[in-house]
Amino acid sequence: MAIEHADVLRAAHLARLGIDDADATRYVGDLSRILEMVDALQGVDTEGVAPLAHPLDATQPLRADEAIEPDRREAFQACAPSVSQGYYLVPRVVE
Amino acid sequence: MHDLTLAKIAQGLAKGEFSSRELTQHFLERIEKYDSRFNSFITVTGERALTRADAADTQRAAGQAGILSGVPLAYKDIFCTEDIRTSCGSKMLDNFKAPYNATVVEKLELAGTVNLGKTNMDEFAMGSSNETSFYGPVRNPWNTDLVPGGSSGGSAAAVAAGLAPAALGTDTGGSIRQPAAFCGITGLKPTYGRVSRYGMIAYASSLDQGGPMARSAEDCALLLNAMAGHDPRDSTSVSRAVPDYTQSLDAPLKGLKIGLPREYFGDGLDAGVERAVREAIKVYESLGASVIDVSLPHTQHAVPAYYVIAPAEASSNLSRYDGVRFGHRCDDPQDLMDLYKRSRNEAFGEEVKRRILIGTHTLSEGFFDAYYKKAQQVRRLIRQDFLDAFEKVDVLMGPAAPTTAFTLGNTVDPVQMYLQDIYTIAINLAGIPGISVPAGFHEGSPVGLQILGPHFGEAHLLNVAHQYQQATDWHIRQPDLP
Fold first, then answer.
1. ipTM value for the complex
2. Could you give the domains of chain B?
């Protein structure tokens, strides 16, 4: 399946990557070659084969729904780009 | 001291031949003197290391030292280390000091090891040559015109050059084994789930696994003893007893059945690499092993399946870098969307963006079944190939990579680079353990023999590798550093 300029821009928007038109043109070539390689999978007979998500077919263990982590807000916010009074600051969202 | 294995270093410390401070000082001096040539470290934690070394010496004087007390190590810069920059080779995390330690770091610190610093790597572990690092490429200590392999190239180069006696790496598609092969050291990728991934920055969560990179299989066994085990903080880590991996190293190999996958000796394999690998297999025959040909019929589909699954998981894992909570933020964002888009576009490198775009595309509406689901189905077939092979043989052997280290700056096409990982990628898809062991040289560059075993077969793999290292001395060779 080929990838086109519009597909690259769509994926970039979904992934919140601010690439420009010229970048997208460049990625069309690279991504097309990758998808061309990947397309070989379409020829493999997988009729009746269950998808494998975890190499040991393990399932997620469950635990009681209890708070077990200590509050380390200050430590975690120490590496944030912009905080004030314990909040993360971002540009105004609601006018 | 830099020519000693970890096992010998542990002995020397126990006998009082040198202190941890002397040892640590020695390695720090070597990093200072030589690393400008190799660029194998992103961050050197000299002062902290000496403080830790003194603590280890005090502990030893009090008769409380464990086997790894005072032993210096380096960590790939993908492992979170509290209050120390953890960059993952990316501009995105250039300013990120981890607020906590990865579980393996915590375990190794508890064992008394001394952290020398954080090693260079391909950005977010995406690469096979260490050329995608924000901090510049790493150079191969055997020949600085060549790449060290990747993505754990800094760890491999540091150990090969004697700048650290051992280092930790991670392996998602070959990132421990291929650089170990290119740099002439021993590197083990454990079974998926054997070592906790908590605090190991995620690339492709169903494939990533941390492991030791050192000068011998015995050294890897010592480190794996301290690293392995269930971790309640990693739900994919496996609750299963950890054996003492050093206990079985000396078991004789008489009767060992080695399978040679015919797909690993086909087109594209460099003749010099094949020669060295076949020589190594002859050594095994002389130790009493028998060799049979086997087939892993889905081998050719491993690289395509990987380049659906790994980028898909990466696109999801890397969505956390939003410029809000940590990491790079662009200047003067106009609005929230602009903040996300510019922060991410400015701070991710080309290869990372490529993989995010591919992963986002293949997971998007209308493409999911054709790509991701199909790749997961093929993944089951690939795993089945290995399960079938291990019905007939104890281990599989072949080359770790089709060539020796290639020239830095030479690869233009990403797909050509991806195909380099043909012999390592299937192992991650199947979740089995694999080790690369130095097996000689071709035109001056090290060749790696890859040995594969069934799930949780690490003890046997290390035994098989160790016996070869008792019969050969490739693993203890080091490049001359004038």
1. 0.95
2. 1-482 (3.90.1300.10)
